[in-house]
Amino acid sequence: MPKIASAVASHPGLRRADNEDAYCVREDVGLYLVADGMGGHTAGEVASRLAAETIERFIDDTRDADANQTWPFPYDTALSLDGNRLKAAFRLANRRLAKAMQENGDLRGMATTVAALLVSQEPVIAHVGDSRIYRWRDGHLEQITQDHSWVSEQVRAGVMSVDDARRHPWRNVVTRALSGGEDPEVEVTPIDLQQGDRLLVCSDGLSGVVSPDRLEAIAGEAKAPQAICEDLVAAANEAGGPDNITVALLQVDVA
């Protein structure tokens, strides 16, 4: 496992009384996660928290797992062991949300996006929704997840520009989330890590209001990870802070 330094910062933003984001930063198991909850009063906060807790628990419980053990879902041979761990964790989180809604009718309709990075045997990312993961390398910032949102699908289809998508009134409409329904389609992708890389895992309270150029500049600052996280949150609030803001940052192979 590569040597990692990490940090996280979370803020409700300037227009929300509550923070419905949740996160997990566990260097000991290599899990870095941000969840952005959606729903009525307090329900979004419950959804993101339950998802983060369930995923963290499963990754912790399976740190010594192998492909031959009993899995809660069919083992996907197209994925690595860690890819299967993340995919199963997301699906278990979805079922945990379903159980919570059955037990408490006030939570019905809650959902959450999740983006997660697992740095263990083989680094892998997984996500549903529009929480994002970026990689900063050699001075350039690259978005390495594709949003599961209506506007992003229009951009990929070539019928909407990126600038128009950022301003569109439906920009917050996601097409995938953990919502307690059928097992979600979790996008799982292996990634490579190199010395000096920085990985950002964030909610759309950051990516939706701070320009890519500004994100790239802050991510490349010659500062400690915690200071960079705080600068990113500050940039989102300077841009109006319309939503909750959470960012986890990893720096690879620090001396």
Protein described:
There is one protein chain. The chain has 255 residues and is an alpha+beta fold. It is 32% helix and 24% strand. The chain contains seven helices and ten strands. The protein has a five-stranded antiparallel beta sheet with strand order 1-10-9-6-7. A five-stranded antiparallel beta sheet has the order 2-3-4-5-8, with helices on one face. β4 and β5 form a beta hairpin. α6 runs antiparallel to α7 (225-238). The longest helix is centred in the middle third of the chain and has 23 residues, at 81-103. The radius of gyration is 17 Å and the shape is globular. The two termini are 15 Å apart. The model has no long low-confidence stretch (mean pLDDT 92).
Helix-strand layout with pairing:
Layout: E1 4-11, E2 21-26, E3 31-38, H1 43-61, H2 81-103, E4 111-118, E5 124-128, E6 132-137, E7 140-143, H3 150-156, H4 162-167, E8 187-190, E9 198-202, H5 204-207, H6 212-219, H7 225-238, E10 245-252
Antiparallel strand pairs: 1-10, 2-3, 3-4, 4-5, 5-8, 6-7, 6-9, 9-10
Helix pairs in contact: 1-2, 6-7
Number of strands: 10
What's the overall average pLDDT, rounded? 92
Tell me, briefly, the overall form.
globular
Structural class: alpha+beta
Give me the number of helical elements.
Answer: 7
Low-confidence stretches: none
Q: What portion of residues is helical? A: 25-40%
Order of helices and strands: EEEHHEEEEHHEEHHHE
Q: Classify the beta-strand content into a percent band.
A: 15-25%
Largest sheet: 5 strands, antiparallel
Write out the strand line-up for the largest beta sheet, numbering strands in chain order. 1-10-9-6-7
Radius of gyration: 17 Å
Distance between the termini: 15 Å
